[in-house]
Amino acid sequence: MIQKFRWKFIGTSVAALLLVLLITLGGLIGITRIQSQNEVHRVLTALVKNEGHLTPQNAQPAFGDQDNPINRNFLGGKYNPEAVYQYRYFAVTIDASHNVHVVNSTNVYRLKNTTIRAITRKALEEHSQTGNVNIGQNQYAYRVAKDGTGQTIVIFLNETLIFNRFWLLVRVAIVLGICALIVFAVILILVSRKAIKPITDTYHKQQEFITNAGHELKTPLAVISANTEMEEMLGNNSEWNESTKQQVAKLTKLINSLISLARAGETGEITLSKVDFSQIVEETTQDFKSVMKKNNLTYQISIREGIKVIAEKHTLAEILNILLDNARKYCDPGGKVQVKLTKGGALNKSAILRVSNIYKEGKGQDYSHFFDRFYREDESHNSKKGGLGIGLSMARELTEAFRGRISVHHKGDDIVFSVILKIAK
């Protein structure tokens, strides 16, 4: 239980850090992308206004009044005239005869005029004022506009270079994020044992106290039981002696259950191995046949043969004993108890044990606390059944010790308990 709590704590902490990283780095990446898109838009605007030529002097107006804090590009910083030399672009004009004339191609690397004309015609075929075309390893954004003479001008800007900063940030964010998660997880694993040591110590002391107190209580109970039997042997048999015997038996059962539950929390005491689940269910259900018959209950058993799981034989049988005893207690008079063992789950890799009984009063009840220790939905009703409120809690802890799951739900008139274990290979 402590180890499960520890790993849940580590998992929750790592998940919280992952969420923070996703929000922080994701926000930074998103802002950088928007800034890159805005930069492409501003540079294209400057090129259109200057008919395909970009200089430190003519580019500044397109970036806004940098002395005005409202117009200034906060993310990009103040306008630097030298920045215009980092952009790669070319421009063409289209005359009345639809001929393509290259205006400026000095700012691109090894791009022939024939290629430029072919790319321009391809862009014009899209019949769009803006768009993107791929040229080799680069992507160019283009904008179609009119120059000062009324001719059509098309500006092409290499946006791959502009977005390189964005993609660099994405790669760095992924690497740093993964490294941060790994380092954080390793640190948590190393320090978590020490962090939860007070809880571990308290838990072990609680388990030790329950076990020791249970053994100490058994001695006075044995004396009370022996004295009661002696009274009966001396002829003092009365309803008070009978009541004392019943209470002693009830307390003995409660103490044994508490000790078993305390030991179940220490999974190290349970040695797991490959066991025949089908055989265990067959043997255990046979032991309850006479009990069910005595209570006038219909008893149906369906077992798929050859199902093997990783568990401990006697402990697994104890889970079934708890569920069958619970079904016997709470089955409606003259009702039916069913036990079914099948394969299920993804690719039939799970063993599913279902124990159900007719329990009409269970409809609409809250089953979320059924496996809590000493929980009772109806104290007056359950006390008549003689339950201790600990059996189902034991069943859950024992099932979890086998890395399985146990659940309960109400279907029709039946209350159904399901135990799911992974089938052994």
Automatic annotation (TrEMBL):
<keyword id="KW-1003">Cell membrane</keyword>
<keyword id="KW-0547">Nucleotide-binding</keyword>
<dbReference type="Pfam" id="PF02518">
    <property type="entry name" value="HATPase_c"/>
</dbReference>
<protein>
    <recommendedName>
        <fullName>histidine kinase</fullName>
        <ecNumber>2.7.13.3</ecNumber>
    </recommendedName>
</protein>
<keyword id="KW-0472">Membrane</keyword>
<dbReference type="InterPro" id="IPR050398">
    <property type="entry name" value="HssS/ArlS-like"/>
</dbReference>
<dbReference type="GO" id="GO:0005524">
    <property type="term" value="F:ATP binding"/>
</dbReference>
<dbReference type="Pfam" id="PF00512">
    <property type="entry name" value="HisKA"/>
</dbReference>
<dbReference type="InterPro" id="IPR003661">
    <property type="entry name" value="HisK_dim/P_dom"/>
</dbReference>
<dbReference type="GO" id="GO:0000155">
    <property type="term" value="F:phosphorelay sensor kinase activity"/>
</dbReference>
<dbReference type="GO" id="GO:0005886">
    <property type="term" value="C:plasma membrane"/>
</dbReference>
<keyword id="KW-0902">Two-component regulatory system</keyword>
<feature type="domain" description="Histidine kinase">
    <location>
        <begin position="212"/>
        <end position="425"/>
    </location>
</feature>
<keyword id="KW-0812">Transmembrane</keyword>
<keyword id="KW-0067">ATP-binding</keyword>
<dbReference type="InterPro" id="IPR005467">
    <property type="entry name" value="His_kinase_dom"/>
</dbReference>
<dbReference type="InterPro" id="IPR003594">
    <property type="entry name" value="HATPase_dom"/>
</dbReference>
<feature type="transmembrane region" description="Helical">
    <location>
        <begin position="166"/>
        <end position="191"/>
    </location>
</feature>
<keyword id="KW-0808">Transferase</keyword>
<keyword id="KW-0418">Kinase</keyword>
<dbReference type="InterPro" id="IPR036890">
    <property type="entry name" value="HATPase_C_sf"/>
</dbReference>
<dbReference type="InterPro" id="IPR036097">
    <property type="entry name" value="HisK_dim/P_sf"/>
</dbReference>
<keyword id="KW-0597">Phosphoprotein</keyword>
<keyword id="KW-1133">Transmembrane helix</keyword>
